[in-house]
C-alpha cells in the first residue's frame, strides 16, 4: 500500500515553479509597477532620470526616490521577517521616534556620538525584545502586543525630548541622515547593506526556512524541533533594530529629533511595502529584496506626486488608486487569469 | 465670522496692551484645561500660561487632557466642584461642549476659550482668545510683496496638513496678501504636513522640478518647522536660503530665529503662545467691575525679520518649551 503524498506548500500559495531565468524573474507585478510609476514620473517631469554629480555626491530625482525610500525600506526589511512568522509589528514608527530621541538627547547632553548611536540601537533592540516577549512568552496576538508600544512608545519619546524638537549639530548623526558613501546618500548605502546582509543571512543559511516554517504553522514547527519562541524573539528584536536605524536616519536628516512626528504612520507604509513585495500577511514564504522594491514603489509614487504639480488634495487618491491596482495585479485571481491565458496560448 | 474677527481685532490689541491693572487677579483661583502636548507650540503655550498666572499672583490649576475631550470635560467638572473663580479651556474639538459649559454657567464661573473656537452658543463662554490665521498668511504675503519690490517672483508653498484649518486659512491669507502684486506668482503648492521631514522632502521635489531651484524666488511655509526643513533642502541643492531663495513662514518658534541669525530665513509671522495674557486681562476686568469683554479677542500677528534682533528672540523663546 502506498501512502498518498502530501503537498507541503501552504494552501494559499499557488503552486508553480519559481522563476528561473533573469527575464522571467523581472516579469513580476512589482517590477512592472515600479517601471510604470517611474515612467509616469518621467512623462510628468522630463528631467526625472537626470542625475548629476554635485558636491561629491549624486544628485537628482531618482536619487531622491532612493534616499527617501530608505527609512521605509529598512523598516520593511525587519517587517518582512516579522510578517513571515505570521506576525506584524505596529510599533516600528514609535521605536523610530524613541531611537531618534535617545540619540539626539545624548549628543545634546555631551555624550560622544558613537555612544549615542549605540544606545539608540540598543534601545531599538530592547523595544523589539519587549514585543517578542509579549508575543512568545505571554502569547499575546502580535497586532495587540505591538500596539502597546505603538501607543506608549511615542509617549516615551516625548518624555525623552520633553515635547520639543531636540536639534543637534553632531557631525556623525548628520552624516547618518544626509552624508554620502561613494556618491550614494548614506541612508541608501545603509539600506543596501542591510538588505544584502539580511537576504544572504536568511537564504544562505536555514534561517529563512525556519522563519517560514514558524509562519506557516508555529506548533508544527515546534514539533519539528524548531525553537520557535527563540526564533520569534530574534525576529522581533531585528525589527526593533531596523526601526532604530531608520529612526537615526530621519533624525539625522532634519538634524533634530521630532518625537511627535518622526516615523508617524510609517509602520503602515512598511507593512504596505511588504505586502506589495508579495509576502503574505498569513506568514510563510517571504522575500526581503521584494519588500524593498515595495518601498521603492511607494516612494517613487510620493516623489512623482510632489513633482507633478497636482494639488495636494489628490495625493492620497492617486496613491490609493495605484496601490489597489498593484494589489489586484498580484491577487490569486489575476494570477490564475494570466495563467489560463498563457496555457491557451500554449495550446494554439 | 471673519468680519467679526476683524472688528474684534482692535479690541484684542487694546486688551493685549492694557497690562496696567494686573494686580487685581491676585489670589484668584483659575483652572486651565490644556489639550495636551502635541506640539512644541502647545508646550510653550502651557509654560507661558503658567508664567503669566504667576506674574499676576493667580493660583493656576492645570489639567492636561492628553488630546481627549472626555478628560477636558472631567477637568472642567473638577474645576466647577472646586469652586474656582474662572476656567480657561483650549478645546481639543469644536463640538460637544454645551452641557459642561452650561454647568459652569449655572455655577456662575466664567469660561474663556484659548486659541480654538467651538460650535456652541456664544452665551456659554465669556470670550475666546485666538489668532487670526487668515491674517497671519496675509502678513506673510504682504511682507513678500514689499521684499521683492516689483521684481518678478515665483513662489512655492509648503502647506500644512490637507484640510486642517490653519492650512486652509494661511493659504487663503497669503493669496490675499499677494493678490495685488502681479509680479508674484504661486507656482507650486504641496503639503508638508507641518513637519520638518516632510517640508524638506517636498522642497527637494520642488527644487528638482524647477530647474534645480533656478526659477524659485521664494518659499512660503505654513509653519516654521517646514521652513526649517526647506532651508536644509535648499542648502543641499547648493543654493543659499535667505538670499538665492527667500524664506517666509509662520509661528515664530526659536529655531526659525536661529536660522535668521545664520541669514537663512527672512521673515516669520508670530503665532503668540501668550493666549493667557489677554484672557487674564479680560477676566480681570470682568471679575472686578463686570466689564464684559469682546466675544472674540484676536491676538496680534507680529512680523519678525532679521532686523528684529533674532538672537534676542531666540534666547528669550528657547526656555519656553517649544
TrEMBL record, chain A:
- Its transmembrane ranges are 31-53, 65-84, 90-108, 115-134, 140-157, 231-252, 264-283, 290-310, 316-338
Locations listed in the record: Cell membrane
Which keywords are on file for this protein?
Cell membrane, Membrane, Sugar transport, Transmembrane, Transmembrane helix, Transport
One Pfam family named in its UniProt record:
BPD_transp_2
State any GO CC term. plasma membrane
InterPro entries according to UniProt: ABC_transp_permease
| Database matches in PANTHER family | ABC TRANSPORTER PERMEASE PROTEIN YPHD-RELATED-RELATED, GALACTOFURANOSE TRANSPORTER PERMEASE PROTEIN YTFT
**Name of the featured protein:** Simple sugar transport system permease protein
In its UniProt entry, the species of origin is given as Gemmobacter aquatilis
Task: Show the taxonomic lineage.
Answer: Bacteria, Pseudomonadati, Pseudomonadota, Alphaproteobacteria, Rhodobacterales
UniProtKB/TrEMBL annotation, chain B:
Q: Which UniProt keywords apply?
A: Signal, Sugar transport, Transport
Q: Where can this protein be found?
A: Cell envelope
Query: A single GO molecular function, which one?
Result: carbohydrate binding
InterPro entries given for it?
Peripla_BP_I, SBP_2_dom, YtfQ_transport
SUPFAM superfamilies, alphabetically?
A: Periplasmic binding protein-like I
Outline the extent of the Periplasmic binding protein domain. Answer: 30-288
Keyword Transport annotated: yes
Q: GO CC annotations?
A: cell envelope
In which broad location class does this protein mainly occur, judging by the first location in its UniProt entry? other
Q: Where is the signal peptide?
A: 1-23
Family membership, please give it.
Belongs to the bacterial solute-binding protein 2 family.
Q: What is this protein called?
A: Simple sugar transport system substrate-binding protein
Q: Which organism is it from?
A: Gemmobacter aquatilis
